[in-house]
Amino acid sequence: MTPRTPRRWYRRGHRGGLLDLAARPASALWSLATARRIARGAAVDPGVPVVCVGNLTVGGSGKTPVVRELSRSLIASGLAAHILTRGHGGRLRGPLQVDPASHSAGEVGDEALMLAGDAPVWVARLRAEGAKAAAAAGAAVIVMDDGHQNPDVLKRLSLIVVDGETRDGEWPFGDGRVFPAGPLREPFATGLARADAVVLLLAPDAGAPDPELLRLFQEKSVLVARLTAAAPPPGPQLGFAGIGKPWRMERALRTAGCDLVAFAPLADHQVLGESLLQGLAARAARLGAGLITSEKDWARLPPTWRDRVTFWPVRAQFEDPAALERLLQPVLAT
Prior knowledge:
By secondary structure, this protein is α/β, with parallel strands linked by helices. The chain contains eleven helices and 13 strands. Strands 3-4-2-5-1-6-7-8-13 form a nine-stranded mixed beta sheet, sandwiched between helices. Strands 10-9-11-12 form a four-stranded parallel beta sheet, with helices on both faces. Helix 6 links the parallel strand 6 and strand 7 (197-202).
């Protein structure tokens, strides 16, 4: 389980409380360790193109919907696209191919289990071994989930996903501090320099991308994608989510017209044990509400709870599919 992301990190102008100030020396060490790991990495070429979908922050940017849509697009074009992930939250080290019929989220992670319904998914703590296993199994292209700071696999294309929401005083990178004093995994300019393109992910109801945000990426190709979702179920609902930015799901449900009577933010990848679920169910019963959660959280539910909780699927859709094709074409042709 990953600790809950502090929302204050994403407040524009946030200068940090005592905890953030105390964490600044650790941020410097974190940045140094990340830079050394990347510099010393010996990238393995698995023999097929690798498209990396990563980000610059510690979570909640929307990588998973982008990975899913990118893989779907590649498969629709006739390519054998496989997904490679670390399997965060799962105990199996791999490399192994995820079988949704036999693996659990506790074994391979919730994201891997969810994505395996759309494409072949490989879990591997050692990404290079996973990439080689996918290529040996017939992958024509590998979509690597969350590997921008991982130097072990040769990438033909590196995309970074940026949460384009700038409403309510939020800014995707906060005030530019590195974890654990802020949301960045590494200094902004350093991470951006290694990216080939940026995927700016927007909410369905968001207007045009923030011009100030676009100026940060003026030397990079920028693809705009929007989240799309089905209509929420009718009637009162109690929502809960253990994702990087649970407040975004709460806001999205309300914007979509959900009668959300309460919302419980959980830590990212939080274990959904019987006690927690019983507590949520009891609270929902008192409010006369159903239970609704994200698709990723639903994948972590014990099987006995899946009929009692509705998941709200969210997808990403590129505004200009032709621009995506132009970006991918030279990579896939090599």
